[in-house]
Amino acid sequence: MDYSRRELADRLAAEHVLGTLRGPARRRFEALLPAHPALRQAVAQWQERLAPLSQSVLEVTPPDRVWSRIETRVFGDAVSASSTVAAPARWWQRLGLWQGWSAAASAATLALVVMVATPPPAQPPVIVVLAANPEAAQALNASFVASVSADGRALVLRPIHALALSPGRALELWAVPAQGAPRSLGLVQAGGETRLLRTQLLRDTAAFAVSLEPPGGSPTGAPTGPIVSVGKLQV
């Protein structure tokens, strides 16, 4: 999907600012904003156009019960669950890896299947945002956008922000199944785009993850360094 097209960027930005872009489409749009200058510019233009409409709206302080309901709906039992010590588990078996991060990171890690109001003639690629892992931020604060062809044979991975990789370290991409150990998809370029050609990239894949490894990649066939970013696949 070419988000640099002015007509498409303008339409999606208008729906986002007006609040009519909802559900998976809105989450996808917000997650891709950091990587698409054209989308950010279109959003800023629509915010400027619609700003005068809000000047006549009086500020209203919501009752306490409203905030209580919002907290319950967003966080659920997270507060009580945080006091329970979980049993040790490998990183790819931990439910908290998918659901226990902050609200912003959880939204970013949602797998994003490209959908627009007018379906394109060809089946669009699957877009997955690999959000930075707060637990590994000291090692490397890294986040990526992965685009997988609909037939699961090609993957393009791009860093959302420039990465400063320490000498003697490498980045490795992993396909994580719902059960079992992850499988390596190869090394990742820290300074640009990584393109991979594999068969059945999406088969038995629940998520993608990037780990910090020694030069040449993991010597064991499994991640040995910290998992710096991860994104769940949902199709």
Polypeptide structure, described:
- It is built from seven helices and nine strands, in the order H-H-H-H-H-H-H-E-E-E-E-E-E-E-E-E.
- The protein has helices at 6-18, 23-32, 37-50, 64-75, 78-81, 96-99, 103-108; strands at 111-113, 126-132, 144-148, 154-159, 170-176, 183-188, 194-197, 207-213, 227-232.
- Strands 1, 2, 3, 4, 5, 6, 7, 8 and 9 form a nine-stranded antiparallel β-sheet that branches.
- It is globular, with a radius of gyration of 20 Å.
- The model is unreliable at 82-87 and 95-121 (pLDDT under 50).
Q: Briefly, what is this?
A:
With 235 residues, this protein is of the alpha+beta class.
Structural topology:
Elements: H1 6-18, H2 23-32, H3 37-50, H4 64-75, H5 78-81, H6 96-99, H7 103-108, E1 111-113, E2 126-132, E3 144-148, E4 154-159, E5 170-176, E6 183-188, E7 194-197, E8 207-213, E9 227-232
